[in-house]
Amino acid sequence: MVRMSKTAAVDAEKQVFDITDEHLHRGAWWWWFWLFFIENPAAPEKPRQLMILWSVKNVPVVDCNYLKIRADNSSGSRSVLDGVAAAWYFDGEEMHHNFLLEQCNLHFKDSSIAADSTPSALYSITGRQHNIRLGSDFEFTAEENNGHIFTGPTYNSDIYYASSGYSIIKINHLKMSGKIRGEAVRGSAYFQRVFVTTPSPSWYWGIFHFEGGAALSYFNPYLLGRSLKKTVSFFDGKEIHKLKNLEIQRIGQGLPEFKANAENRSHRIEFTVKSYSHSDWTFKRNVFGFIPSRLVYNEYPAVISELKFTNKETGEKVTLNDLGKSVGNAEHATGALL
Asked: What is the pTM of this model?
């Protein structure tokens, strides 16, 4: 893990699967995470979504939903790791929870990761093309858009103390095409590859794509009621606006809304996230064998139902009338996984 608090562009093909220099401390966690936002002609207001995850967490035992995971990576191998593959799928009407949730071997090569799960899950990169297969049902190609650093692959890392910290490679927006059970589909995608060596706190997070080319993301991790970070990144299609002091409020249970606002010296943003489906993962483990630790990780397919981005100097406003329709995913995790 290299200390680098600033964001830098990277070559995803060379770095996404390179785990050779990252030490798998006890409690450390790797994951490769995809969200696919897929057009839904039958109900355009509810785009289809697929989430796929390849994961390795270095703890003796952890429960995830119905699965008790007992991983053993004591051999030191970096070509085959004992991990988990997971996926959920919203088909436009119904959420298929635990579409895939299986402990399995993860096979690493220079430009791919493959899970020998059922169904199998393969992710490979060739140049700027990211190819993903989930069994025989899903076959996608996601194409990088490197016109701006916000939409291309970037790397960021930081060390909080000693060897505790994180590194992340992410791609905020990719164009996606492919097939679902033989049906040609298209849409957009988001990707992140994370290595973290700190406990996982609670958080709010979201990523949204707009039909006019804009994108928005926000992140608010918190612990014991105290926010660790409160940021919004809004890409208007031409430039990136970084806003701080995010205030976010969950409204309702079931399928909630999230009201949010943030600002910087020159701009203020206010938006509402409206969810239309839901899936979740509940992680549980006992630390030192007797201290309970529990994290409930909720994922909500969602849209931005209201947005106002205001230039505080000129009064000029950007709204959904300018950006077009949106699609994305909102996360709300509660508890902590130690």
From this structure: 0.96
Query: What pLDDT is recorded for position 4?
Result: 46
- Whether residue 146 is found in the same domain as residue 207: no
CATH assignment of the domain containing 288: 2.40.370
pLDDT value of residue 277: 98
**Same domain, residue pair 120 and 244:** no
Q: pLDDT grade, residue 34 (50/70/90)? A: very high
Same domain, 182 and 208: no
3-state secondary structure the chain: CCCEEEEEECCHHHHCCCCCCCCCCCCCEEEEEEEEEECCCCCCCCCEEEEEEEEEECCCCEEECCEEECCCCCCCCCCEEEEEEEEEEECCCCEEEEEEEEEEEEEEECCEEEECCCCCEEEEEECCEEEEEECCCEEEEEEECCCCCCCCCEEEEEEEECCEEEEEEEEEEEEEEEEECCEEEEEEEEEEEEEECCCECEEEEEEEEECCCCEEEEEEEEECCEECCCEEEEECCCCEEEEEEEEEEEECCCCCEEEEEEECCCEEEEEEEEECCCEEEEEEEEECCCEEEEEEEEEEEEEEEEEEEEECCCCCEEEHHHHCCEEEEEEEEEEEEC
pLDDT tens digits along 212-224? 999 999 999 999 8
Q: Residue 143: give the domain boundaries.
A: 1-197
Say yes or no: 287 and 335 in one domain: yes
The whole-number average pLDDT for the span 41-55 is 97
Same domain, 191 and 242: no
161 and 204 together in one domain: no
